[in-house]
Input
Amino acid sequence: MYDIVKSDKLTPDVIKLEIRAPHIARKAKAGQFIIVTPTEHGERIPLTMADFSPEKGTVTIAALEVGKTTRELGTMKAGDKLFSLVGPLGLPTELHKYGDVVSIGGGIGLALMYPVVRALRQAGNYTINIIGARNEKLLIYEDEIKSVSDEFYVCTDDGSKGHHGFVSDVLKKLIAENKKIDMVYAVGPIIMMKVIANITKPHNIKTVVSLNPIMVDGTGMCGSCRVIIGGKTKFGCVDGPEFDGHQVDFDNLTARNKRYIPEEQVALRKWQGAK
Ligand code: FES
Output
């Protein structure tokens, strides 16, 4: 069992939990994820680590409350216990001194973006960070990401904060201004990552995306997280979750991520009915 040390709502639909898990916190690196099973008979779900502290022995996760299990997590408070945590899983972000790195995040992807840009900056990169959400109230990790930015841009779909429009608009503008960009990192909705990869491809800008396929075991055994990269099948959990954005078959990923929507709806209705 794993103790929840702290529980916060980042938005009405996003829960942030700090969990005591010293053995994971000691080994965790930016870009990795954990598999959480909230209750003994619950579902296993992969969640990105928004932070980890070897000193405190804790890991922090942020989850968008959309389905049964994430809503269940959303009801948890400090002092509650989680049945199981497995991790850290996946390959960490490849850290090099690339030069000028533009990192782009949207929605819940901002939670993962924070430790990644922090690590990129610690690796000596100049960090240009662009974050976006539907509106100002849905922006998460804004202060944290700003604190590890050399340049920082905010975008909202409704114009309630920063640029009125998409994160991709800012990237296009930077490219049009001939800004030096040595690498682009993107994490967020699939459509956002696809658009970013399509923008950078003709300019030959190395682009890394963090994918979110459906996962079960998270250790390369079930095949549920299959993604197509450069025409070849890869497993998101052990070969990723980060891949070359120019090689990803985003349409296949979109289709695969919709496979269990009817079952997810049934599970959610049952859970809501049982509450
Ligand atoms: S989640 Fe099962 S193989 Fe990746």
Observations:
- The pocket of FE2/S2 (inorganic) cluster is lined by residues 215-218, 220-225, 235-237 (CB under 6 Å).
- The radius of gyration is 18 Å.
- The chain has a mean pLDDT of 92.
- Residues 101-188 form a domain with the Rossmann fold fold (CATH 3.40.50.80).
